[in-house]
Amino acid sequence: MAAWSDLTFDVLEHITSFLPLPDHYRFGAVCKNWRSISKQKRQPPTPQLPWLVLEDDKETRNRKFYCLSEGKQYSIDIPELHGRYICESSYGWLFAVDLKITGILINPFTRECYELPPFPEYNEYTNVSTLIEKMPSDYNGEPIGCTFEEMQTIIVWKAILSHDPKERSDFTAMILFGQMNEPAFWRPGDSSWTVIDGLDCSMDDILYFKGNFYVVAAMNLLSVVDFESKPKLIEVGLEIPAQISVEGCGLQRYLIDFNGHMLLIERFGHSDTNDKSNTDGFIVIEPKLEQNCYNIWDDIDGYALFLGRNACIHVDSCRVPKCKKNGIYFTHPTESISPVEFGYHDLGVFDMTNKTIGTFYSAEVIFPHVDSPVWITPNPW
């Protein structure tokens, strides 16, 4: 019988077509021959549930990830992320901010990276770029009203990409930044962010859908970005009344491209005695812009959604083991600053069928942390 190390190239490559991402790395650790097959990355990993990006390990500085499919935590050395706050993910890329309030866009599994220009002013009183220029080792100044550690976590509220940078170099990055979550965009080669003239209200989420960027604000106010002449937001003109009952309180709105359908998702809940927001459920709405109407969805066609500080993700539960059918997995996008917990008191999975909320994590995920967890779909090749 031939040794495992002597299996032919075709056989080994066929084996890798059945492996999820963690097993690809285990496969490459078996022997030199298998490692050479693994490095060629000819077969993509089989579909898995999204991962959670957690905090740095305080001793090793490795970035911790939680693989939901395995219920297992991994620690990966990614020097570019040392000391950085992960504020968003899109197409498997992470937006990360350091203590000097400078940002990078990085694929944590390939280490491809873009340096981002300085972020726009947080508000009219705080020009972070000016403060950074005054930061020799003996500088003790801080942004008005907060520390640099706090500014690191709140300068960017949401961020998305128009396309996967590995597939198109002419992608656009769009962020909601500052005190009012204003929109701004950047393209490779730009020396600065371009701020978009917005509305007099705070924005909740952004979406790239069929060639346009859309933004949702309070009261389900939908706008589209007009890039002609001076970029600005234009209301789409569709009125979508809030679907929250009088018992509930609107916490957050999300936008997602769901198999060619734009969905607007309302998250509602209540505040506890410690003034922490707690999720009670979600309402799924389909704005039909061309017909100037909307529909309420009772389920999501057997899929699962993953919402939080990420470009919203949808997964076909029929193709991915352990995926909850018609489930909405969520993390809490809190801006609360606490030395003990940051975004870990309110995360779970909402069952659209029976309107209940359960857990999806093991105990290791809810130990005290300082970073808000972020969903990511690994994009290693």
Main sheet strand line-up: 21-20-22-23-24
Q: Averaged pLDDT, please?
A: 83
Q: How many individual β-strands? A: 25
| Low-confidence runs | 134-139, 336-342
Main beta-sheet strand count, sense and barrel state = 5 strands, mixed
Q: What would you report as the Rg, rounded to the nearest angstrom?
A: 22 Å
User: What is the N-to-C succession of helices and strands?
Assistant: HHHEEEEEEEHHEEEEEEEEEEEEEEEEEE
Instruction: Please estimate the helix content.
Output: under 10%
Tell me the quaternary state.
single chain
Count of helical regions: 5
Binned strand content: 35-45%
SS class: mainly beta
The gross shape turns out to be globular
Distance between the termini: 34 Å
InterPro entries: F-box-like_dom_sf, F-box_BR-signaling, F-box_dom, KIB1-4_b-propeller
Pfam families: Beta-prop_KIB1-4 (PF03478), F-box (PF00646)
Organism: Rhynchospora pubera
Protein name: F-box family protein
